[in-house]
Amino acid sequence: MTELICIVCPRGCHLQVDPENGCRVRGNQCPRGETYGRDELINPTRMITSTVRIKGAMYPRCPVKTSAPIPKHLISEAMKALDGITLNAPVKCGQVVVENVCGTGVSFITTRDMQQL
Length: 117
Ligand code: SF4
Description:
15% of the residues lie in helices and 32% in strands. The N and C termini lie far apart (56 Å). It has 2 helices and 10 strands; from the N terminus they run E-E-E-H-E-E-E-E-H-E-E-E. It has 2 domains: 41 residues, no CATH class; 62 residues, CPE0013-like fold (Roll), CATH 3.10.530. The chain has a 5-stranded mixed beta sheet, with no helix packed on it. It has a 3-stranded antiparallel beta sheet with strand order 1-2-3, covered by helices on one side. A two-stranded antiparallel sheet has the order 4-7. By secondary structure, the protein is of the alpha+beta class. Iron/sulfur cluster binds next to helix 1.
């Protein structure tokens, strides 16, 4: 039995997931916890947030995130994809920074507008 804390909402239910029994989930107070518990054992994924350099804006770095969750084991490799990226202001929220991160089909996108100085 694997014990997890559900991170889908602030309630933080304590889940027990049984890998011997089809990843049956107990302790969840809603169906989203069942999905989270099962996925966490079979194929854990995470959204990634970070920043990249930007030239010509009020701040030196622009916040970015993945457009969807990616497999947890690819996080380090995905972060390397941001090394050496420098944007030029202006940028729009949702602008693609890196496409198809680690072959996942997911992109890094900006999460705010940044005007040119
Ligand atoms: S199981 Fe449902 S209620 Fe409990 S923490 Fe997860 S999402 Fe929230």
